[in-house]
Amino acid sequence: MTDKNSANAITPQTNPLGCLTRSIWFLWGNLGLAFLAAYIVAEKKYQLSSLDLIYWLIALAILGGRYADIKWLNGTTAQSQPATMATWRRFTLYLLLMAAGGWLLAHGLAKAMEYLK
């Protein structure tokens, strides 16, 4: 006889593709955004450049990775609950707001550093 709770228990992620996808959207993508924002400031690139295109392509890749994680790889929330498309929509809004804020801050600091030299 099986326990009903054990049948509904969420198992840890063992799919290597799922683990790779999670590491991309959760860790590496965000590190890439932070690195590019810092590089924009350090190089005083306050005008639009190829760095901006790369920045936003990374942001889109993060969103795509999270979408794939939820849609095809049984993604979960931070509370180990199954993630839904509502989870993805909230994540998308949060990421776009944070990415835009980081991008604007980087350009503002780059412009300010240009005036300080």
The total of helices stands at 4
From the spread of the alpha carbons, the general shape counts as elongated
Structural class: mainly alpha
Q: Can you tell me the number of structural domains? A: 1
Helix content: over 70%
Secondary structure elements and their pairing?
Elements: H1 4-7, H2 16-42, H3 50-72, H4 85-116
Offer a concise description of the structure.
It contains four helices and no strands.
Explain the overall architecture.
- The protein has 4 helices and no strands.
- Mean pLDDT is 89; it is low at 1-10.
- Helix 2 (16-42) runs parallel beside helix 4.
- It has one domain.
- It starts with a helix and ends with a helix.
- With 117 residues, the protein is an all-alpha fold.
- Helix content is 74%, strand content 0%.
- It is elongated, with a radius of gyration of 19 Å.
- It has helices at 4-7, 16-42, 50-72, 85-116.
Features:
single chain; mainly alpha; 74% helix; elongated
